[in-house]
Structures are given as C-alpha cells and as structure tokens.
Amino acid sequence: MLIIGGDDKMIRSTKDMLKSKFDMKDMGLSYVILGIKITRTQNSLVLSQTHYVDKILEKFYKGDTSITKTPSDTTYAVSKLSKYTSNASVEYWRSITRLLRYTRECGLHYGRYPTVIKGYSDANWISDIKDSRSTSGYVFTLGSATISWKSSKKTIIARSTMESEFIALDKCGEKLRQFVEDVPKWPKPVTVICIHCDSQSKIGRAQSTIRNMIRQLISIGVISIDYVKPKDNIVDPLTKNEWDISPELIIHAKETLPRRLEIPRSGFKRTT
Going by CATH, does the domain composed of 112-254 fall within 3.30.420.10? Predict the structure, then answer.
C-alpha cells in the first residue's frame, strides 16, 4: 500500500488508524512501486524505470550497455523501429538497443508547480510515402511534467495538412475527455483546459458549425483552443524527424517530456 499526501500529520494519523485495524508493517519511504522507481531531490520527485531497462538489456543485449546521447524525440523513433521488430536487421537492432540505453536514465520530473493541465496537439502529413499515412501526437502536462503522451500513425489517409492536423486534435480531445471522466477524484466542475496547436486553420475548423467532438467540448466549456508557435509546440518531436525540428524546440521539449535524471547513477559513463 502506498500512502500519499501533502500533510505529514494526516499521513501519520492514517497509518496509525490502519495499524489499529490491520496487522501491517511500516516500510518507510517508498523507492519502487508497481515497477516505477522513485527518486527524490530537494524540490521534486523523479519517476523512472531504469532498473526495468537494465533487465531488458541484460536479457537481450550482450554488448556495451553504457548510456548514450540520443535525441529526445524517442517516441517518433520507436514508432518507426517498431515496424521491424519481427525481423530486425543488425542495423535496426543496434538502433533499438541504443534507444533502450538512452531511456535507462530518463524520468518524469514533478516539481512544486501549480496543478494546471495543458494539452498540445500536432501532426505531420504523409510521413510514410509507402502508405501515404500521417503521424499524429499529443502531450498532456500537469504542473512541471508530462502525464500522458502518444505518437501514432493514422489509420486513414488525410487529404491535406489541415485535415491531418484536425484528426490529431480530435484524438487529443477524445483522450482528454476520457481522462477527465475516468478520474473520479478530479474536482468537478473541471476548469477549462487549454489545448495548444500550431495551425490557425485547425483552430478555425474546430470552432466552426461542423458537428464534431471538439466543438462540443468547446461549447460546454471543457476545453479552449489556443495557438502556439511551431517553435514552442512541445509535441513536435513526437511527429517529426530530428532534422525537421529546431534545436531550440528540442531543448524546450526536454524540459517537459521524459528527460535525464538529475541524480545520475554511479558507475555509468557516457558514450557518444
């Protein structure tokens, strides 16, 4: 059992009450829960799965397992490499293990920030010339870190960039609706949640008279759509190749998406 709270007195009272009714042992501060490692810093918590990645590398990879410097857009890379896992060549296998070696030291940083949910939506158009399908992605942040993100290839072919962007926005809205409805403890009514996107045409269509879920969410006050410059859209690395993204955006995205732990494990050395 994991007890979480912002009041030490309330936590102690809860533990004493449980001890009076059940035979239980206080294990102290938690360090691993449900396969997730918890690292504490002075002003934040870091959630990671370093030990799980180590087990995978130990089982499937016998080469050098020291961490590597890899671009932050791993979600896009994983979506591309996943197509070749059933019959991966040596080159693809090296790329897969390189990504694993990078993610071993990545984690989600949660600091003392206001608990405000923000959403980001983006898409490219015809990212794969073999099937003419696009890649869409979304990111949701709470406070200082990401709570949900996804990059996926569309199941339908978009006829234009604007249509591709709108499909991505619709997926983002659907995920947000499920998130709000599936969390029973979330305060009701939920304050308006802003979804950021870098397409003016997409914003215009979302607020048009066309019947769609996004327009419904806007009309009932669940979400609002706000324009964000492409250089500030942190979901961009989930839908595009590294060479299509500005260095400034990669740095900005690293501050929100899963990133390196602030406290590196001893014994590891970086390689290039």
Answer: yes
